[in-house]
Write a structure and sequence with these properties.
4 helices; 48% helix; globular
Length: 136
Amino acid sequence: MSNIFLTHKDAYYKNIKPVVADYAYRGKRYHIDFALAIGFCDKNINLCDFIQIKRKTDKVIPLENNLCCIIFDCVDAKRVESATQNLKKQMNTKCNTEEFFIEVVTFSEYENDLKMFNYLFDDLEHFLLNKSYKTL
């Protein structure tokens, strides 16, 4: 997966950017925070099939069968833990604890969608290259 990941990183950003753009605009203009999460499962399962979003303003962005991003709208650093725990529970039903990766950042931490993306994917790349997966 790490080789595939490295060659497709730009394509992933191109898929994510148009979806995140409206959230980033609202974050800059109106100070409405949001969180961007990345989920990866070592098993070849479609994460989008079982990740349930509860609000219409949240979005799941499929990147690969076992890799996706999730946008949690109006979630600040204080409430991101709850969103992360819900995501972890959903992923834990399909992936073993050792076999999935979750990372979440908020717009207020980075104030730029590219910085958010780079942090998430650099962290994912690090874990994939080191063959260690983390759960929050």
